[in-house]
Every structure is written in structure tokens, then in C-alpha cells.
Amino acid sequence: MSTALTAVKISSLSSDLVSSSGTTATVIAPFTGLPLHEIPVSTAQDVGDAAAAARVAQVAWRSAGFAHRREVLLKAHDLLLARKGELLDTLQTETGKTRGQAFEELFSGASVTRYYALSARRVLATRRRRGGIPVVVETRVSYKPKGLVGVITPWNYPLSLSLMDVIPALAAGNAVVQKADNQGALSILASRRAFIDAGVPAALWAVVAGPGDEVGNAVVDAADYVCFTGSTPTGTKVGVRAAESLTGASLELGGKNPLIVLGDVDPAKAAANAVYSCFSSLGQLCVSIERVYVHATVADAFTKAFVARVSSLAQGAALDYSTDVGSLTSAAQLERVQEHVDDAVAKGATVLTGGRARPDLGPYFFEPTVLTGVTSEMKCFANETFGPVVAITPVANEDEAIAAANATQFGLNASVFSGSRAHARAVALRIDAGSVNINEGYRATFSSVDAPMGGMKQSGLGRRNGPEGILRFVEARTIAESTGVMTLPRTGAEFAKMTGLMTTLLVTLKTLRRR
Ligand code: NAD
């Protein structure tokens, strides 16, 4: 299949990477298995140089103020949309996902850009808070950007996951040094161009690529705050390293996301909606559903409809909207998915549909796969497959479904399908996950950029999106002043005189219910 990404375009994009090593690494195009390009490899020294330049650029960017940053970001939003064709081609070529799922990335990236362009000033405005002693103390809180934010991103959703961290960091007045995964770096650089062309200084948002341990560690060491998105083992290492210098970090990690189908659903309708939740980007999505717990009363009808729909998905490599599911991104991903399926089958699971690689479609294609009879000794029971494999398990009642959903080290995303949204909301409150979707798998929460997104338990620390997502990137500074109305006691004699009055004040404040 021919790629719409020309060699000239690729070399122009990769020249934006900060790299002085003179060495390159080969990036493979998932649809073909052929080399896509040679990516320049960055070094720890490159990170240091980029960080120093970014810190210089940050001073002017911060002083330019919210109104300027808002104008630049809104212009970049429009450029992202104007460059839709090129961005979708790049995303598909680098990741192997379908055009629809590439568009979801662009939609999410544009949404988060609009959101922070329009909300940064409001969230970060200096505000009065109640003084400790009414009339005598007056208090304000203001926010100072951290300075340099380090962002480390994975290969699966390179555009949207980058912008979810980079844009609020910039909107708050910070600079960014980002370590891209080699796979996906072009998509990041292509979207970054829209921001540079809109007026973000090039040095303010530097992108590096290369080995995770060398370049990733250098990013952590250089930054005043770190955002990591990736696997739980790597995220844990990043968190520990950041903690050594008391650098704050948000960690967006893995999941083993459950979907509960309650007994009051229309099984066919529920199945049609549930399928999309499991196979977006062929399951290579942190919030993808890998476990379905279905109430026994609807289990047969739901499973039948679910399997029929999965079997009919159009799979292939096409830079248009003619396919429903695409390819896995790499040979390593194919190996991991095959291993999980083979292990499950060897230990007694049943493949209801799928279960096979599809070399006839491309080197890393694997069929959307539905398993049943998955038990705790199988690898795919508790470990993230991060691929197109979902296990359906009938449950006797709601309590059993909730207990099974929560019986995991992870707590990233979950979903509840029900004929009653109110009932589903009550169930959602009992699920230990950072996001819970009702009658949707992940898109309801993923698109809600005004609401926090993140993981409980081993799925992470901190939250992106919403006010929480920008408050990560600032230091709160409290400025409180004595109004001079009254002098606070300093000597024993002054305390002796005033403690009665101050005790009466405490009683009065409580009586008046004044915070
Ligand atoms: P990964 O942890 O292997 O790599 C992520 C990034 O970290 C890459 O850029 C990599 O080069 C870099 N890295 C590797 N070693 C490093 C080190 N020692 N220090 C610093 N950086 C280092 O993850 P992956 O395989 O690229 O991504 C898949 C995983 O990411 C899955 O577990 C998935 O669930 C998770 N993920 C989570 C979210 C979320 O928002 N919670 C989103 C997408 C992916």
C-alpha cells in the first residue's frame, strides 16, 4: 500500500527533532512491515540543550499573558482542523489504526486545545480566599507556572495523548520538553507544526526521541514537573526517579478495563455499542475494554449479537473510512497478543470469533477476538493484553459483576450498560476506576475534556483534563496580609488580654457556619 506521507515531508518533520547524535533508528510502517523512515536519535545532551533553550523561551511566553496564549492556541486549533488530511495520513501510517480512529485522536486533540485556550485564565486567576481572622487578615491565592514540564508519551495515541499534557502546560505559561516514542514521533511533530505556525515559539516546545532509559531519564532530570503516559512498570520507574528530586509527576498507566452489562438492557443494542469499546485502534488503547461481565439473564442473547457484530467488522489497511478495524502497530504487539490467545486456549478458553493473525492483510494484523471461559491461571485474565482480545463472562447478579470488575490491580476505565441510566449511575459509583462510562465504552469520558481523567490503583497518579489537568502545572502561592485593623498578640500579656475575645470569635464563626 502506498503511503501519502512523502519522503520529503517525513524528512522535513524529523528535522524538527532535537538530535545531534548523527545516528538514526529505523521505524517500520505497520500496514506494510517496511521501513517508513530513519528517525534521528537524541541524546541526554540534546535534552539538556533543549531544556536550556526552552527555559529561555518560557520567560517571554509567561510574560505574554493569558490573552496572547489564548489567541495562539485558538489559531493552532484551526490549523489542526485545516490540516486534517495530512494529520490523519500520518497517524494511520505510523500506528496502523483506521481513519475513524485517527479522526478520534484529532477530535480529542482539538477539543483539549480549545478547552485550555478558553479556560486557563479562569482556572488560574488570582482569587481572594477567606482570611484566617475576618477583617484582620486578607488572603489571596495566585499561581505561578512550574517552568519546564517534561512530557513522555507512548506510540498508541501519539497526537491526542501529547496534546492532553502539552497544551495545558503551555496554556499555564510553561515550556515543554517532550520525549516521543520513535513510533508516533512524526504525528507529534506534524501536530506541533500547527502550534509553531500559530505562534508558539519553536524552542518553547522541544521534541526528542530515542532510548527510553537515556533520553527519558534526562527529561525527568531536566523538568520541574513530569507527565508520563505508558506502561505501569515504566511509569513506576519514572515516578521513583522524579521523587528523588521531589519533582511532581502525573502518571497515566495501564488498565484491564471492565464492562458490566446489566440484566435490563436490550441485548442487541448493547452488543452493538459494546463492540466499539473493545477494538478501537485494535485494542491498543489504555481505556479499551478487555473484560465483559454480562448478567446471566441476557448473557446468551448479548454474546450471540456481540460475536456476530465482531465477525462482521471490516479489517484492512486503507487511508480512508472503508475499514472498521486496522492493524497492530508492531511485531512486538503481535507477539504479545498471540501469546495471550495461545495461552488462554491452551488452558481451556474458547475462541468465539477471531483468534488468528492475518498476514494476508499485512504483517501485524490480528483478528478481533472474543474469548469465553477465561480463568485466573490464564495470562489474559489479569494482565493488560493491549490488543484486540476481550473475554466475556456471565455473572449471576449485579454484586458479582461489580466484585469481578473491581478484582484487579488496575483502576483506569470501566463501563456500565443498562436500560436505566439512573441505575447505571448507582452501579458506576461502586466501581474503583478513574472513569466510568454509561452505555458507552470510553468515548463519553474521553471526550469530556472538562472532567478529570486518570487511574486509581496501579493505573496511575494524578489526573489530566479539566481544571485538575492544568493545576498540575502551577505552584499555588498564598499571599496573606495584615490589614492593620488590629494587631495580633505578641507577648504573654497581650495573649492574656486577647484569648477570651479570640475564643468568642471561634465560637461565633462556628455558630454562623462561616468556613
Ligand atoms: P512504555 O512504558 O513502554 O513506553 C512509554 C514511553 O516511555 C515511551 O516513550 C518510552 O520510550 C519511554 N520510556 C521507556 N523507558 C523509559 C524510562 N526508563 N524512563 C523514561 N521513559 C521511558 O509504554 P508503551 O508500550 O509505549 O505504551 C503502552 C502502555 O501505555 C500500555 O500499558 C497502556 O495501557 C499505557 N497507556 C496509558 C494511557 C493512559 O492515559 N493511562 C494512555 C496510553 C497508553
Description:
With 515 residues, the chain is of the alpha/beta class. Helices cover 45% and strands 19% of the residues. The protein contains 17 helices and 20 strands. It has helices at 7-14, 44-82, 84-95, 99-124, 158-171, 185-198, 212-222, 232-244, 267-279, 296-311, 331-346, 379-382, 398-406, 421-428, 443-446, 466-471, 492-511, and strands spanning 24-28, 35-40, 127-129, 137-145, 148-152, 175-180, 205-209, 225-229, 248-252, 257-261, 289-295, 350-353, 369-372, 389-395, 410-411, 413-417, 435-438, 456-457, 460-461, 474-482. The strands form 5 sheets. A 7-stranded mixed β-sheet has the order 12-13-14-11-10-16-17, sandwiched between helices. Strands 7-6-5-8-9-19 form a 6-stranded mixed β-sheet, sandwiched between helices. Strand 3 (127-129) and strand 4 (137-145) form a beta hairpin. Helix 2 (44-82) crosses helix 4 (99-124) and helix 4 (99-124) runs parallel beside helix 5 (158-171). The longest helix is centred in the N-terminal third of the chain and has 39 residues, at 44-82. The chain is globular, with a radius of gyration of 26 Å. The model has no long low-confidence stretch (mean pLDDT 97). Residues 152-157, 161, 179, 181, 212-213, 216-217, 229-231, 234, 237-238, 252-255, 286, 384, 386, 412, 455, 460 line the site of nicotinamide-adenine-dinucleotide.
